[in-house]
Amino acid sequence: MATATTHAHTTRTSAAKVASAAAVLFAAAFFWTVASVNVPREAGDAELLNWWQQSSNQLSGMVSQYCALAAAVLFVVLLNYFRTLAAGTSAVQWTAFARSMGLIFSMSLLVSAALRGVIGHMVKVDKEPLPGLDVLRYSTALNYNLIGTITMATLALTILAISIVILRTRVLAKWSGYVGLATSTIILLATAAMIGAFAIPAALLWSLCLGVAIWRQPASI
Fold it and tell me: Is 219's pLDDT higher than 70?
């Protein structure tokens, strides 16, 4: 019996360590998703074409793609851990809502990953000619709109739901729930104002705080 209990505690502690690391790595991957590439906005035809003709910019788009892919996978790891942590609590509906919104967020991030890397992949891997200006502008605008609206809105709703579960059930430190409420409100307001991408630092702060809260939780939880 003692061995079984020790094993259960070790398993939970290991899962917490993985989830905590996933939260920190998600923040890093999400940061580099947007920081590694910066297509100029409101650029003239010549400026935009010149930007895309640079090999380093094509490569940065591919780097951004893989960072977005990593962020999506890491967020699912974090979601699965939280779902297990909250299992058996009274916040069943909020936990389910958090998981649903989180999966939509991850899927939208995968779509963004494809949009970020498609031009670089076409030119550097498939050896295709650079697309015309209309395609370049459309793919850039579509990606910015996706990140700034759907991706950030679903992330904010995920954070909100997770925070409510934390505050109702105390599965993690209460302060992490308040951090989540504040950051989700900031992100939702920014998304409503059509500047959701500018609220990404708030999402990164939440993820790092959640990682700390998971790491510091008692092993017996």
Answer: no
